[in-house]
Amino acid sequence: MHLWLKYWQFIEVLGSPVGEQIRMIDIHHHLIYGVDDGSPDLTTSLAMAREAASEGVTHIVCTPHASDNYPYQTELILERLGELRRLLQDEIQLELGCDFHLNAENILEAIEHPLRYSIAGKGYLLIEFPDLVIPPQMTDAMRRLKGAGYTLVITHPERNRVLHRKPEMLADWMREGCLVQVTSSSLYGRFGSLAEAFSNELLDRNWITFVATDAHHPKWRPPHLKKAYDYIARKVGEEVAQRLCTTNPMVTLTGAALPSQPEPIGLWEYEPLKFDSSKVPPGPRHVPRKTKSAKPEDETEVPGANLKGFWNRLFAR
Q: What is the residue-averaged pLDDT of the chain?
């Protein structure tokens, strides 16, 4: 109840007179230092948080990677989150989430420990796809995560090379209930013209649920959510900017259902996304595998046994 009271007090600020600072929530921010490719040290983390606060961000969800390159170090993450909370308690509020990479080990861990990796433990999970190949088993894995209680938020699809080539995959996942988070600076071209075109097509279609910074560093991946807020307000209106940067992000902190959203244009009519696909690079070349020799006659196959690879283990459970 206390959090909901704060929520409604917060939403009332949206009616403030013109000229007062906009209040925003950043749900994807690599603020915790020394645990991934985000902030390298405490000084940088404090600078990033204070820059975000100066723009009007009131809450940051700290989202360290859980990936092959950056395993999720729970104890260290909680220790440094506590340190940052103490140092920033009068300036900005911090919550914990995860930039959750969809590999088999992570998925098994998340299913066995429901809501562990979600934002504030309330169920909204930021998921990131591989950038070269998305295996066909991924959709079933996502269904298992949803069955474990997670609400899946697809992060920065506009930057994923597989989805550039096959944007219909994103539409399929949305029809299954997935939400979409776009990187703020993609909208105005910081990640290149392809990500800009893709993200703006999603914006025009009402396919975006959240806009967040995915900040990593004050200079090369800065926490500039206000710039995207202003861009969205100019292009499609203030109400949309508030919804994507403030109202929708707030529900991830409370675990509430999303408020009523505008109809996603073309989603249920199966209308293809329209963006300049001429700049999409070709996919990876398929190299045929060498044929393996036949197994000895006494080496019989047992269903569910002798499975190899993470994905086979996942779907054998």
A: 88
SS3 316: helix
The phi and psi torsions of 168 (rounded to 5 degrees) equal -65, -20
Give how far the C-alpha of residue 84 lies from the chain's centroid of Cα atoms, to the nearest Å: 22
- 157-207: pLDDT as tens digits: 999 999 999 999 999 999 999 999 999 999 999 999 999 999 999 999 999
So what's the pLDDT on residue 314?
A: 59
Phi-psi region of 91 (alpha: psi -120 to 50; beta: other; left: phi over 0): alpha
Superfamily of domain 20-279: Metal-dependent hydrolases (3.20.20.140)
Its pTM stands at 0.85
How far is the C-alpha of 39 from the C-alpha of 29, rounded, in Å? Answer: 10
CB 72 within 8 A of CB 98: yes
Domain ranges of the chain: 20-279
- Region of 213 on the Ramachandran plot (φ > 0 left; ψ -120 to 50 alpha; else beta): alpha
Q: Which 3 state secondary structure label does DSSP give 243?
A: helix
Burial class (CB within 10 angstroms; exposed 0-12, middle 13-18, buried 19+) of 75: exposed
Amino acid in the structure at residue 248: N
User: In angstroms, rounded to a whole number, what is the distance separating the alpha carbons of residues 258 and 236?
Assistant: 20
Residue 297 has pLDDT above 70, yes or no: no
pLDDT score for 191: 97
CB 179 within 8 A of CB 275: no
User: Has residue 264 got a pLDDT over 80?
Assistant: yes
> Residue 316 and residue 308: Cα distance in Å, rounded?
10
